[in-house]
Amino acid sequence: MIEDRDRLASSEARGLALECLETGIEAGHPRTVVREAVALEGDTLRVGDVAYDRREYEEIVVLGGGNAGAHVAVALEGILGDRIDRGVVVTDDPVETDHVTVREGDHPVPSERGVDAARELLETADAVDEDTLVLAVITGGGSALMPAPASGVSLADLQSTTDGLLASGADIHEINAVRKHLSALKGGQLARRLAPGTVASVILSDVVGNDLSVIASGPVAPDESTFEDALVVLERYGIDAPDAVVDRLERGTAGEIAETPSPGDPAFDTVSNHVVADGMTVLEAARETAAGRGYETLVLSSRVRGEAREAATTHVAVAEEALATGTPISPPAVILSGGETTVTVRGDGAGGPNQEFATSAALALENEGSENNGTGDTNRGKPENGGEITVAAVDTDGIDGTTDAAGALVDGTTVADPDDARVALAENDVYPYLASRDALLLTGPTGTNLNDLRVLVVR
Fold this sequence. Notes:
By secondary structure, the chain is of the alpha/beta class. The chain folds into two domains: about 200 residues, MOFRL domain (glycerate kinase, domain 1); about 250 residues, 3-Layer(aba) Sandwich (Rossmann fold), CATH 3.40.50. It is about 35% helix and about 20% strand. The chain contains 16 helices and 15 strands. The chain has a six-stranded parallel beta sheet with strand order 6-5-4-7-8-9. A six-stranded mixed beta sheet has the order 10-11-15-12-13-14, with helices on both faces. Strands 1-2-3 form a three-stranded antiparallel beta sheet. The radius of gyration is 23 Å and the shape is globular. One of its GO terms (molecular function) is glycerate kinase activity. It holds the Pfam family MOFRL.
């Protein structure tokens, strides 16, 4: 999965960190989690804890999208075969399917082909009736991949607004509050178009806390955000949105445009939502891998958020405490966390939250090899194997920020000149810096998207 893995695994700690990443990501792949959550037993289709008698429906349709959308469709085809009559999923990681049409879009900034794909998806949705069972595929990345601009809003308007939000440091809840109110699909509006069909969603969550209204902007989930909330987000972060965007949000706030469907709306009477995998799925698998290698394990949280570089210094501090005092865990240990950190962009470089996390961690570890670390020896210098703490951080979809890297692997030897690392962070240009230090992790699209995964190995 990880390019040049053997070369990167130059120490036991680095090798274990990479193994934890790979097993964690693999555990969250649709081919694994969908088969655990969806089963066909005779004429009964079970999705989560809900049973459907397929004889009650004239057709079964698969609709939705996200980074893992096509892989979920393949997994569903493996269970249902030709009982699936048709479908459309939109993704940036296409794979071959037998009954479901796979259309391509782009992530994290929406594109024209995404608009065309979403249009086909909505046309298919509009043909659904009360005799249809819809398996709604909802995975991370769906917000950008299925843009479906609302009336009066252009793709360029969406792109400009999305760019501004991604660079602002706004969290995913705030970003999606805006995107929902600029879309014809998000914020429960797909459910509204599918009614009165029966909808069973199969969800891979990339959202802290599994808020259904936020995952892919909640196409089939109730939405409690409002046009006014969206306006507040733009104002809070000083987003210079296009006139068409501001005009739509203001008209919605004034009641001139219908709100997205909220809890209790009849559109959800025949909808059931099922989260089949989330960040904890990844963390549990990584923890089992580390424990199997004889390491003590600690999952800090699956809900870490905030500025990536600040989260990194906190994580390193926990590892240092473990090394120095055996609290909260005694080495050899592996400390894990998930969630979704953000980056407030002030420079004009390349990178992503996990790369900034790794760079900040590497800076914190720069002098780690020469510290006491509880051994009583204060003058050892940096060991050739990288010191006592190794840090790996990736986005589980394989795409960190807008780069081709999933994240990075660092230790006490990564930073040669601290000033270079500080400049890279200040300019939000950590990608080339990490590349020069041979620290980038490249996986390509992984087939899933379950938030970030961070691994700290304490020897």
